[in-house]
Design a protein that fits this description.
mainly beta, Ferric Hydroxamate Uptake Protein, Chain A, domain 1, five-stranded mixed β-sheet, elongated, disordered N terminus
Length: 317
């Protein structure tokens, strides 16, 4: 009797997103504001606006050294506006923020009418110069396009320098947990977080390959992989994965994903000659694979309360 190994994960979750979120993993916009002569400008109002924020905008004011910091920004694309009475307003568009990223955005204001606004666009992407961690972000668009299983460990192997103890071919790994390592490190140091909250590290499950942990990819907005110079709040020094949950937003939207395969869709290299020599010879494989997930979300009250629903099932035999 042939041994059958079956791994089945099914989950559904409903999340309400309120204006204030605890334990979330945010990004930051920081910089210095000066005038046309190069002197620092205190008291400048800096506004960061994005559909990713349930309140739409978040503000900060530059201090006596002209420095400012707009913190607790959810991942997304932001427009940054600098305003000060008696000076021309400056708007910087297309500032992309991801979890743990510090975007340096500086501005130079000139004397002018309050109604005047200078829009800066098309500049080169900003580079985080304040943190030393080596991070790689996989946004929702990239996750949807990858022809692999949707688990955090499988997509992590697409990052250069990251290796795993298992290989995925056409989604065959399903929701099985992999052990990730970077730069020749140990996989037992891997840490996984969900919205900045640690769910444990590999050393706590020595040899278990995280078989008791699964992630519904429909609920992930992006995945952030730290492969070097991990920040101090991590208990270990290996690969750290932070999964940023998906939110509802001010418009109704959803997504669906499905993947199916069985043994009749496989190919092997067993020739008729080899089968004659050993009739019991059989190539390894699986009998069936099913992976499906769906998500739907939107506003309960615009700019006040959002909801997000997720469901998913994965099974391999």
């Amino acid at each position: 009797m042939r041994e059958v190994i079956r791994h089945l994960v099914a989950g559904a979750s409903a999340v309400l997103v309120f204006p204030a979120l605890c334990f979330a993993q945010f990004g930051t916009i920081a910089g210095v504001v000066k005038d046309s002569s190069g002197a620092v400008l205190p008291g400048v109002t800096v506004e960061a606006a994005s559909p990713a924020l349930i309140e739409k905008t978040r503000t900060a004011v530059s201090d006596s050294a002209g420095q400012f910091s707009v913190q607790q920004l959810r991942p997304g694309v932001y427009t940054v506006t600098f305003t000060l009475t008696g000076f021309t307003s400056v708007r910087r568009e297309g500032v992309e923020i991801s979890a743990g990223f510090v975007a340096p955005v500086n501005a130079s204001l000139t004397v002018g009418a309050v109604s005047e606004t200078i829009t800066v666009s098309g500049q080169s992407p900003v580079v985080d110069v304040q943190s030393s961690s080596e991070r790689k972000q996989l946004a929702k668009e990239a996750l949807d396009a990858l022809p692999t299983a949707r688990s955090f460990a499988t997509v992590g192997t697409t990052i250069p320098g990251v290796t795993a103890n298992q290989r995925d071919v056409g989604g065959t790994q399903g929701e099985r947990g992999n052990v990730l390592a970077a730069h020749g490190g140990s996989g037992t140091d891997m840490t996984v977080q969900v919205d900045g909250i640690s769910v444990g590290n590999m050393s706590q499950f020595a040899g278990s390959a995280w078989s008791n942990f699964s992630l519904n990819d429909a609920g992930a907005q992006e995945m952030v992989f730290e492969t070097g110079a991990v920040s101090v709040e991590a208990a270990t020094g290996g690969v750290r994965v932070n999964v940023v949950p998906r939110e509802g937003g001010n418009r109704f939207s959803g997504s669906a994903f499905g993947n199916f395969s069985n043994r009749s869709m496989e190919r092997d290299n067993l020739t008729p000659e080899l089968k004659v020599r050993n009739p019991q010879l059989r190539s390894p494989g699986f009998d069936g694979l099913v992976d499906e997930s769906a998500a739907f979300g939107g506003p309960i009250r615009r700019d006040r309360l959002w909801f997000s629903l997720r469901t998913g099932t994965a099974a391999t035999t």
